[in-house]
Amino acid sequence: MELKYKINKALEGVYNKIKESAEFVSLSQDEMKLRVIFLGHADKAISFGEHGVSAAKAVYTYYKPNKTFLEINLNNSPDFINKTEFIEWFEAKYLEGFQNLNSI
C-alpha cells in the first residue's frame, strides 16, 4: 500500500475519532488543544520507528540520535474545523518526515 494512502487513512481515522468523541464540544473551544490531541493520536497511528520528540511552544521536533528529521509547528496548522486542509497539512508533514528519514 502506498505510504501517502496509509498516512491519509490513519489521519482520517484520528480526525473522525476526535470529532465523534464526547469531549469534542468542549475541546472545540480550544483550537491548540485540538491540534495537540490530534498530533498525539496521529503519532501513535503513524510510526517513525524509534525516535525522540521534544516540544516547546507548540513546535514538535522529531529526531534520531544527533539528527533532526522533522519539525511540526502547530502554530502554522490549519484550523481543525477545515478537515481537508487540516489532514492534508499533517499528511505533508508526515511524508516529509519519512522522506527525511530515508536520507539519514
Structure described in brief:
It contains four helices and three strands.
Globular, elongated, flat, extended or rod-shaped: what is the shape? globular
Q: Number of DSSP helices?
A: 4
Q: Which residue ranges are poorly predicted, with pLDDT under 50 across at least 5 consecutive positions?
A: none
Radius of gyration: 14 Å
User: Helix/strand/pairing class, anyone?
Assistant: alpha+beta
- Cα(first) to Cα(last) distance is 23 Å
Arrangement of strands in the largest sheet: 1-2-3
- Percent strand equals 15-25%
Mean pLDDT: 95
Report helical residue fraction. Answer: 40-55%
Structure in words:
With 104 residues, the chain is an alpha+beta fold. Helices cover 54% and strands 17% of the residues. The chain has 4 helices and 3 strands; from the N terminus they run αααβββα. The protein has helices at residues 3-19, 24-27, 31-45, 83-102, and strands at residues 52-56, 59-64, 67-73. A 3-stranded antiparallel beta sheet has the order 1-2-3, with helices on one face. Strand 1 (52-56) and strand 2 (59-64) form a beta hairpin. Helix 1 crosses helix 4. The longest helix has 20 residues, at 83-102. The relative contact order is 0.17.
